[in-house]
Write a structure and sequence with these properties.
By secondary structure, this protein is mainly α. It has one domain: Winged helix-like DNA-binding domain superfamily/Winged helix DNA-binding domain (Arc Repressor Mutant, subunit A, Orthogonal Bundle). Helix content is 50%, strand content 8%. The strands form two sheets. A two-stranded parallel ribbon has the order 1-2. Strands 3-4 form a two-stranded antiparallel ribbon. α1 crosses α2. The radius of gyration is 13 Å and the shape is globular. This is MGMT family protein.
Length: 103
């Protein structure tokens, strides 16, 4: 998979995250690792920072449920508006994490 194809795969996966659910940067990297040969949460973060504007970027959080730095207020407002499960000011990853291919 070329770097350009990887960017497209990351963005396509983020587009599939349902409202009220989230994925972590690492979970996205892990999900694509077999096909892409890459498994870097940092790379996913860089892709989201550079190209993520048109996709539901607010549904991508770190593994502790923290939203993207610099856009916390907007991300939290969007997540709360989607009824994303929260706990102590963060996304409740046990309830909100989405895993592609699982019911």
């Amino acid at each position: 998979m070329t770097p350009e194809e990887y960017v497209e795969e990351v963005l396509a996966l983020v587009e599939r995250i349902p409202a009220g659910r989230v994925m972590s940067y690492g979970a996205i990297a892990d999900h694509l690792a077999d096909r892409s040969g890459r498994s870097s949460a940092r790379l996913v973060g860089s892709i989201m920072a550079r190209y993520g504007g048109p996709v539901p970027w607010h549904r991508v959080v770190n593994n502790a449920g923290r939203v993207v730095p610099g856009h916390e207020l907007e991300a939290m407002a969007r997540l709360i508006g989607e009824a994303t499960p929260m706990r102590n000011g963060r996304v409740d990853m046990r309830k909100a994490a989405w895993h592609p291919g699982r019911a």
